[in-house]
Structures are given as structure tokens and as C-alpha cells.
């Protein structure tokens, strides 16, 4: 058989013109738009996916390292205020003291009901290590985790939880519930409470006082 299809004149057929969509530019092609028209970073501290700088805490594992990590979490918490969020911060520390992830409350700033500090920090840590299991890691957070975050840290296989202030209204690590130490779960992290608790509480009290809350706030409403 010949290379040329029957009925065609000798030589190459006419090139087919490229298909062009009739929609105006920008109305379709969402993937391309997302790639090329990346919105500018919002002003302020919203940066859940930002790569974490390789900070390593000098203190050996133990109370001193927990306190140093809580200082980082408090600094993170302070960043939440610029976005209109309740100041709650969290860091995830590796077994060697490396800061794997950091995060603060971005619920208002990101319009994200799951934008709690712990979730942001856990996601950052998992991205940093390229693994959803954070075995051996310590999650350090300024306020007792809620049910969502307590569940998330168990699912992430975090081995230690360190928190500062108690959340009597919505806490899920000893106050209202004790999700992470439920004996029905296979994975039960060690829990250390009350680290730098006065500082953690003061940060929250100041935030709500400046918003002229009529009474002590319901931290569960963060
Ligand atoms: Zn939470």
C-alpha cells in the first residue's frame, strides 16, 4: 500500500488549523489561569504553605525545649491578630528539635473553618517532611486543642502534645473531652499541659479586651 491515502493528491495534506475556543480569554482555562495569574500574597501573616526555615532548637528534648517551642508558638499566635483572628499559634517539632512546621489561626483571614493553628502547623510539617505520618513529632500549641485538632494530631501520629492555656469551654484534651487519650484509640500521644500558660492566656485576654468584649470570651468561639 502507498503512504498516500486514496483520493489525496500527491504530497502532504493541508495542515489542520488549530482549534480555537470561542470563549473570551480568561473565562475558561482555569488550570492555566491558576498557574499564570497567581494572586499576590495577601498582606499579613497568612502563609500556611510557606516553606519552613530550618530552625533547630538548641535545647535537649524535655521541658526546656518545650518552653522554647512554646515561645515560637506564642510568636506565631501574635501574627494571627493582623488577620483579625484570635491569637492562637502552634509549632511542630521533630525529634532532634527541628521546627518542622508553624501556624497560627487563619479562620477569619482565610475564611476557612478548619484554619486552626494546629491544622496549619500539621500541614506545614507534613509538607516539609513529605509524609503525612509525623511519628516522633511534638505539637506545641498555645491553647488546648478542640475536637477537630485533637483528632487531626492523632491521625498525624504525633507522639507528644504540649499546650499552654486550658480551654474550659471547648477543650478536647482533658477539659470537655479527652480525645487524644481515649483508650479505644491505638495511638495515644503523651500530653504536657500548662507550659507558659499565663502568657498564652494573657495573649488571648488582651486580644478580647481590645475588642471590648463585655465579658471573658468563650475561647471555643475562636
Ligand atoms: Zn482546633
Terminal CA distance: 76 Å
What's the total number of strands? 5
Structural class: alpha/beta
Based on Cα principal axes, name the global outline. globular
Largest sheet: 5 strands, mixed
Strand content: 5-15%
Please name the defining characteristics of this protein.
disordered N terminus, 12% strand, 5 helices, alpha/beta, 222 residues, binds zinc ion
How would you characterize this protein structure?
- With about 220 residues, the chain is of the alpha/beta class.
- It has helices at about 30-35, 65-80, 115-130, 145-155, 195-210, and strands at about 90-95, 100-105, 140-145, 160-165, 190-195.
- It has 5 helices and 5 strands; from the N terminus they run H-H-E-E-H-E-H-E-E-H.
- It has a 5-stranded mixed sheet with strand order 2-1-3-4-5.
- A hairpin with a 5-residue loop joins strand 1 and strand 2 (about 100-105).
- The relative contact order is 0.12.
- The model is unreliable at about 1-10 and about 30-35 (pLDDT under 50).
- Bound molecules: zinc ion.
- Zinc ion (ZN) binds near residues 116, 146 and 148.
Short synopsis of the structure:
This protein is an alpha/beta fold and 222 residues long. The chain is 27% helix and 12% strand.
Amino acid at each position: 500500500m502507498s503512504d498516500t491515502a486514496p483520493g489525496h493528491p500527491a504530497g502532504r495534506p493541508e495542515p489542520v488549523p488549530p482549534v480555537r475556543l470561542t470563549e473570551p480569554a480568561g473565562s475558561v482555562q482555569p488550570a492555566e489561569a491558576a498557574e499564570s495569574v497567581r494572586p499576590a500574597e495577601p498582606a499579613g501573616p497568612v502563609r500556611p504553605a510557606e516553606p519552613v526555615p530550618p530552625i533547630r532548637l538548641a535545647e535537649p528534648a524535655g521541658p526546656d525545649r518545650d518552653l522554647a517551642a512554646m515561645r515560637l508558638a506564642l510568636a506565631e499566635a501574635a501574627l494571627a491578630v493582623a488577620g483579625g483572628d484570635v491569637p492562637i499559634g502552634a509549632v511542630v517539632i521533630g525529634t532532634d528539635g527541628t521546627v518542622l512546621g508553624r501556624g497560627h489561626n487563619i479562620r477569619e483571614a482565610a475564611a476557612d473553618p478548619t484554619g486552626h493553628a494546629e491544622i496549619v502547623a500539621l500541614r506545614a510539617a507534613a509538607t516539609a517532611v513529605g509524609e503525612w505520618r509525623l511519628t516522633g513529632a511534638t505539637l506545641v500549641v498555645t491553647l488546648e486543642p478542640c475536637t477537630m485538632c485533637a483528632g487531626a494530631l492523632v491521625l498525624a501520629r504525633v507522639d507528644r502534645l504540649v499546650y499552654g492555656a486550658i480551654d474550659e469551654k471547648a477543650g478536647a484534651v482533658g477539659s470537655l473531652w479527652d480525645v487524644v487519650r481515649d483508650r479505644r484509640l491505638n495511638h495515644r500521644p503523651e500530653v504536657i499541659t500548662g507550659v507558659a500558660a499565663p502568657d498564652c492566656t494573657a495573649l488571648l485576654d488582651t486580644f478580647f479586651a481590645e475588642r471590648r468584649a463585655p465579658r471573658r470570651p468563650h475561647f471555643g468561639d475562636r
